[in-house]
């Protein structure tokens, strides 16, 4: 029975609303310009979550809620980008840039663009688990 419940999440549609795409672009642009500015970022993520609610995409709704709650609680985003393979010790410089709060949050938000990609779904699920256990 559990497999049947999880199966529809693989058939998710993209956030197709043009306003949702604009919201994603706006969040990414603001993260590039100002970093994690909690005064606007939290409201922007909440607005994006509304589009996911309207399009009935529960995984995105949950991840976005956990994300803004995390930022509200800690004033930053402390969840690293999910890794596909083990990180080598020699590349510490690249790791610090890749796992910066801004880069990780930008990656999470960008995952919501293409929900037909199974690796995006997998990474969103991993973010959800990391956020829930933080």
Layout of secondary structure:
Elements: H1 2-6, H2 18-34, H3 38-54, H4 58-74, H5 92-98, H6 101-111, H7 118-133
Helix pairs in contact: 2-3, 2-6, 3-4, 4-7
What does this protein structure show overall?
This protein has 7 helices and no strands. With 134 residues, the chain is mainly α. The two termini are 29 Å apart.
Attribute tags:
single chain, 134 residues, mainly alpha, 7 helices, 0% strand, globular, disordered N terminus
Quick overview of this protein structure:
The chain contains 7 helices and no strands.
Instruction: Summarize the helix and strand pattern as letters.
Output: HHHHHHH
Strand count, sense and closure of the main sheet? none
Mean pLDDT: 85
Share of β-strand residues: under 5%
Report helical residue fraction: 55-70%
Shape annotation: globular
Oligomer: single chain
Low-pLDDT segments, ≥5 res? 1-12, 91-95
Helical element count? 7
Number of E strands = 0
Span of the ends, CA to CA? 29 Å
Query: How big is the Rg?
Result: 15 Å
Secondary structure class reads: mainly alpha
